[in-house]
Every structure is written in C-alpha cells, then in structure tokens.
Write a structure and sequence with these properties.
By secondary structure, the protein is of the alpha+beta class. The protein contains two helices and five strands. GO terms for molecular function: cysteine-type deubiquitinase activity; K48-linked deubiquitinase activity. Keywords: Hydrolase, Protease, Thiol protease, Ubl conjugation pathway.
Length: 108
C-alpha cells in the first residue's frame, strides 16, 4: 500500500531515464502543481548521482521565451546543433521552453 504522500507529492518531482542513466528532476515550488501562472519562469533541480555531476544542478525554465531570445551565435539551421537530453525531456512538458543551466556545463 502506497501512502497518499507518495501518490500525490507536495512538490513537482520526475524520475528521469536519459540515455540509459537515471536521475531526479524536482522543483521546490509547490505552486507548480496547482497554478499555471507559476509556470512562467521557475527553477528545477536535477540530481543524478553520476560522476559527471560534480556540483548541484540548478536549472531555470522560461516557458514564454521567444525564438529571437536564443543564443544568436548558434545557427538554427545547422544540422549539428543539438539540445541536451535533459532539455528535450523538459520540453515534453513545456514545449518551446528555454532551459538555462546557470553556469553548469550540461552533463547529460
């Protein structure tokens, strides 16, 4: 029997399997579960326990960004341009969102 606290978490949390490795993506703002206005700009944390993760990973998600706000140094028509699997997973929930790694080198 699973207790109600585990069936309905107090904060948003996702178990991720990216490229065969597992991790936890979570937010500390409980409003993300109940208020769509909280989904404008918010923060998520990611922990994988992998050796590649040398420090805490704090991501900033902006769901109302525009294509002209992206890094202009990258050519969007370049077929070699790739997003990290973490960013693609986040975009399954928030399509078109931009993900800022806040100085952390994407390790996924």
């Amino acid at each position: 029997q699973v207790c109600p606290g585990l069936r309905t978490p107090q904060v948003p949390i996702w178990l991720c399997s990216l490229c065969g490795r597992h991790g936890v993506l979570f937010g500390t703002n409980s409003l993300l579960l109940s208020c769509w206005r909280a989904e404008r700009v918010f923060h998520l944390h990611f922990y994988s326990g992998q050796q590649e993760q040398t420090k805490p990973c704090h991501l900033t998600i902006d769901t109302h960004s525009h294509h002209w706000e992206e890094d202009q140094s990258e050519d969007p028509s370049n077929p070699g341009r790739r997003r990290s699997p973490m960013e693609m997973a986040i975009r399954t929930k928030w399509a078109g969102a931009t993900v800022s790694w806040n100085g952390t080198e994407p390790f996924f």
